[in-house]
Design a protein that fits this description.
This protein is α/β, with parallel strands linked by helices and 296 residues long. The chain is built from 13 helices and 8 strands. It folds into 2 domains: 157 residues, Rossmann fold (3-Layer(aba) Sandwich), CATH 3.40.50.720; 94 residues, N-(1-d-carboxylethyl)-l-norvaline Dehydrogenase, domain 2 (Orthogonal Bundle).
Length: 296
């Protein structure tokens, strides 16, 4: 199989190199000459000419739209394009509609440069399921966890949700560590203590399967009332030692609204429904389906 790969940056060069190591013929292109690719082309159009599958790994939507104008006219009719960049759902859906003669799928990756180098990448794909199935083995040459997420744009939405979660947690952790250290705990001991807690012992997203996603808030394992008390005490400490807690204030407000709804004695995770009310959407999943995902 002949593959075109455009974008040999921090992520792209490792993914393309793993395709090469797996025995795939790679026609590569980047704005800068990158060593190690025997079939490095002079332009993006040359890199995709005659290729059955094309991969792009670019900085963002603007670059992808620019490259599309060059490569699509050079692509074979019926060729497949996996767009690996972190992109905009609106842009990928527009490209899918704009170029009906090719199979366009959004396929953002997660795992960082170390994952790209080792081949331990998640690849979240949106688009035609039959096309995904056809090339799943090819995707596994550079990512150990490809996953079909849904129609065009679904992979990109999943990637943006994931990354936003990562940075929101990052902001929260910055607050709690500054609170703990300024409150008088040595940083290493604070790290050890937090890792031993209930939240520290279980994978972050796996915990969603216990209460929130199945919608199981009764009987409670930890009530809204107790959670509200604990966050109130933490914010009192923050004020005493002079640590701003913007994320903590949001958490307290969510718990306060849950109490206003009469949920004080329900499980504290019920406060997550406040955001569902604002967004006008429900995220319920049957327990048996959640159990299957956790087994996988």
């Amino acid at each position: 199989m002949k593959v075109g790969f455009i974008g040999l940056g921090a992520m792209g060069r490792h993914m393309a190199m793993n395709l090469l190591r797996a025995g795939t013929q790679v026609q590569a292109f980047d704005l800068r000459k990158v060593e190690g690719f025997p079939d490095f082309k002079a332009s993006a159009a040359e890199a995709v000419r005659g290729a059955e599958v094309v991969f792009t790994s670019l900085p963002g939507p603007t670059e992808v739209q620019t490259v599309a104008k060059e490569i699509v006219p050079a692509m074979s009719k019926g060729a497949t394009w996996f767009e690996l960049s972190t992109n905009s759902p609106q842009v990928v859906r527009s490209l899918h509609k704009q170029y009906p003669d090719i199979n366009f799928l959004d396929a953002p990756v997660s795992g960082g440069t170390s994952g790209a180098e080792s081949g331990k990448l998640a690849i979240w794909v949106g688009g035609d399921k039959q096309v995904y199935d056809k090339y799943e083995k090819l995707l596994k040459q550079f990512g150990d966890q490809p996953l079909y997420v849904g129609p065009i744009g679904a992979g990109t939405v999943a990637k943006l949700a994931h990354n936003c979660a990562s940075f929101a947690v990052q902001a929260a952790l910055a607050e709690i560590f500054t609170l703990g250290v300024k409150g008088g705990v040595e940083p290493l001991q604070l790290f050890r203590a937090i890792r031993q807690g209930a939240s520290g012992r279980k994978r972050l997203f796996d915990r969603l399967a216990d209460f929130y996603l199945p919608g199981l808030f009764d009987p409670p394992t930890f009530t809204v009332r107790l959670a509200h008390k604990d966050v109130t005490l933490a914010l009192e400490l923050a004020r005493e030692v002079g640590v701003p807690m913007k994320v903590g204030e949001v958490a307290l407000e969510e718990l306060s609204q849950a109490i206003e709804r009469g949920w004080a004695e329900r499980d504290c995770r019920v406060a997550m429904l406040v955001q569902e009310e604002r967004a006008g959407v429900s995220a319920r999943i049957p327990r048996d389906k959640l159990a299957q995902v956790l087994k996988e």
